Amino acid sequence: MSVELETSEGLDEPEKKISGVPEQNNHTRMADLSELLKEGTKESHDRAENTQFVKDFLKGNIRKELFKLATTALYFTYSALEEEIDRNKDHPAFAPLYFPMELHRKKALIRDMEYLYGEHWEEQAKCSEATRKYVERIHEVGQNEPELLVAHAYTRYMGDLSGGQVLKKVAQRALKLPSTGEGTQFYLFENVDNAQQFKQLYRARMNALDLNLETKEKIVEEANKAFEFNMQVFNELDQAGSLLAKETLEDGLPAHDGLPTHSRLPTQDGLPVHDGKGDVRKCPYYAAQLDKGALEGSSCPFGAALAMLRRPSLQFLLAASVALAAGLLAWYSM
Fold this sequence. Notes:
Largest sheet: 2 strands, antiparallel
Shape: globular
Mean pLDDT: 73
CATH topology of the domain at 39-246: Heme Oxygenase, Chain A
Strand order of the largest sheet: 1-2
CATH superfamily of the domain at 39-246: Heme oxygenase-like
GO molecular function, one term: metal ion binding
Number of helices: 17
Enzyme class: oxidoreductase
Helix content: 55-70%
Protein name: Heme oxygenase 1
Number of strands: 2
Order of helices and strands: HHHHHHHHHHHHHHEEHHH
Keywords: Heme, Iron, Membrane, Metal-binding, Oxidoreductase, Repeat, Transmembrane, Transmembrane helix
CATH class of the domain at 39-246: Mainly Alpha
EC number: 1.14.14.18
């Protein structure tokens, strides 16, 4: 028991108020980096948790091709993060948080890539534009402001530990991946026996870092930047979605089988489909257009959208979005 705590317990209630001990303890608690991060990123959490990607992933609305590309985005992100962590493992502002055996994900991601893509996975691995910008920021921080690396490590690893098992089960169920873990090694922390206890240890180590309040505030700001990078990926996808809708209507591309929607449609391989047969009113696109009186001359974009999604450029955008959404979802489970 610390001297300060013993002194506080030795005071009567009026004396405590006069001495200001409770205020000091409260100030100390709020100055803890973990508390500052929790309070300082609330708005970013609120913005991110309302994205459709987070909701869709939790519901299992993800195709295997997109999951493969999502894993690729994670691979590039963690390769950069762990390269900078290794570079700064002896830096006083990060050394206490160096847990390579317990936390590092790159080797697990390589196993996932080998399973999902095959032996020559490296030839197929490409980084999306938004993921590239995040990777560049991680390298910039690691090489110039190592103390800010705490924000990226904490955001990623604590989120992975919190929601990893949930996401793993969702992916296995939705994609029919092996229950033995092939393809989802990323979510398995073999050297962490108790995730909750380890997170407590990590937060305690982080709070014990010898950082002044100004540096702590910079770390909170950097954590919000990490969320902004996530938002940029979603904005990228929104732009792709707008382009997809425009090109679909203009080009009148042929329908293709299967595209996940939020409507209760007939299914194929577990995915809702509209193949142009049966009651056209069951198609959400036609229903919406009919309500607007704009059905005449229109064509259903759902199947055509899937054809567009097979284009590599859009696949990479979607992959990065799903990958970062997974990380965000894990954050919310903390």
